[in-house]
Amino acid sequence: QVQLVESGGGLVQAGGSLRLSCAASGSIFSINAMGWYRQAPGKQRELVATIAWFGGTNYLDSVKGRFTISRDNAKNTVYLQMNSLKPEDTAVYYCYAAIASRSAAYRDYWGQGTQVTVSS
């Protein structure tokens, strides 16, 4: 059984910072890509950032230069450092990871979501 547990969301004023963390645990054999999605009320879920196992990254255009994704492979953890936050960043943030367990091939796993609210 594999699970992802997120932490770090909350309420912050515009211009502030938050750091999200997502730790994978369970019967993990290997982790490929990891990343973060977000979903605002009334909007579709969108991909915010991804990071490959070797560290290559991709970002949503609207967060480039403000958000930084990183990972600690020894801890099976992915992070999202969010700076210069804007009210439009308000959403539920979900982490995901492509994980091969000891009994199954790679599949995507999702965290439970963490609320980020940016006040103006």
What does this structure look like?
The protein has 120 residues and is mostly beta strands. It contains no helices and eleven strands. Strands 2, 4, 5, 6, 9, 10 and 11 form a seven-stranded mixed beta sheet that branches. A four-stranded antiparallel beta sheet has the order 1-3-8-7, with no helix packed on it. A hairpin with a 6-residue loop joins strand 4 and strand 5. The N and C termini lie far apart (41 Å).
Compact overview of the structure:
The chain is an all-beta fold and 120 residues long.
Tell me, what's the shape?
elongated
Let me know the average pLDDT: 96
The helix tally amounts to: 0
Query: Kindly, what is the distance between the CA atoms of the first and last residues, rounded to a whole number of angstroms?
Result: 41 Å
How many strands? 11
Low-confidence stretches: none
Largest sheet, described in full? 7 strands, mixed
SSE succession: EEEEEEEEEEE
Structural class: mainly beta
Q: What proportion of the residues form beta strands (DSSP E)?
A: over 45%
Helix content: under 10%
* Rg, Å, rounded: 14 Å
